[in-house]
Amino acid sequence: MPVNAPMEYFKAEEKFKQAKTTEQKIVCLEEMISLLPRHHGSENMHAQLKSRLAKLKRESISSKKRSGRKGIVKDGEAQVCILGKTMSGKSTILSKLTDARPRIADHPYTTTKPEVGMMDYNGIKIQLVEIPSTFDSEHLSICRTADLIIFIIADDREKEELLIIKKDNFIRTNHLFIDANQSVDDFRNKIWDALDFILVYTRNKGRISPMALKRGAKLKDFAFRIHKDFVRHFRFAQIWRKTNGNTRKIQAGLEYNLQDNDVVELHMK
Question: Does residue 2 surpass a pLDDT of 60?
Answer without folding.
Answer: no
